[in-house]
Amino acid sequence: MDLQEEVSHLDSLILQMAGAVEKNLFYAFDVYLNYDPNKYYPEVDDLKVNAYERWIESDSLHIMLKERLYASDLRVVTGIMSMVQDLERLGDHAKDILEFSMKLKNPSKENTRIKEMVNYVINMVKDAVKSYIDKDEKLAREVILRDDHVDEEYTAMLVTLTKAGDEKEIDTRFLVYTSLVVKYIERIADHATNIAEWVIYILTGYYKDKQII
């Protein structure tokens, strides 16, 4: 395969990895939001996500060692390697969210608001990956801007949870585990933002407004 074919192959693997990550996140959040004591919940399939990460990193290193890359090509490969690290971390977060959900064993009392946040950040992840596949710098920048909304919602949710805890409307266990889940929602948005920033780096050579390559 020539370089373009190898990069296209990496794109396909990234899409598959992102799909596995999204599936795990949806599953973990569904357990949190709709826990049913009569259901059996298997563990998140994080091994698949990790396998994709190793596969993409191996192929990326192979390209770097085999090819005499121009700066722009090197930028693509190094950017991809950084992106998949964020995707892998999202897979780890799905595992953690499922763990907290299984400990809580109670449907969320903030179901609607948290569900809206979940859908919002998963769409950020989808659009961040799409911005790479489509080479869409504008979409990548839009994803980055959305992070402010998540930060505001995160702060508001913590205030709501703390107040409910102080007024004994929720028990301590629910307060602790739900606060952790909300924190992971905020982290998911951070990783989506990181992916979008790497997309901009791949397309322009600028990372966080500083020229790298």
What does this structure look like?
- This protein starts with a helix and ends with a strand.
- Helix 2 (46-66) runs antiparallel to helix 3 (71-104) and helix 5 runs antiparallel to helix 6 (172-204).
- It is mostly helical and 213 residues long.
- Helices cover 81% and strands 2% of the residues.
Average residue-wise pLDDT: 91
The value of Rg in angstroms is: 19 Å
Structural class: mainly alpha
Q: Indicate the percent of residues in helices.
A: over 70%
Low-confidence stretches: none
Contiguous helical run count: 6
Count of distinct strands: 2
| First and last CA, distance | 25 Å
SSE order, as H and E?
Answer: HHHHHHEE
Q: Main sheet: which strands, in order across?
A: 1-2
SS strand fraction: under 5%
Main β-sheet description:
2 strands, antiparallel
Shape: elongated
What's the short story on this structure?
The chain has six helices and two strands; from the N terminus they run H-H-H-H-H-H-E-E. With 213 residues, the chain is mostly helical. The protein has a two-stranded antiparallel ribbon.
Topology:
Blueprint: H1 3-33, H2 46-66, H3 71-104, H4 111-133, H5 137-166, H6 172-204, E1 206-207, E2 210-211
Antiparallel strand pairs: 1-2
Helix pairs in contact: 1-2, 1-3, 1-4, 2-3, 3-6, 4-5, 4-6, 5-6
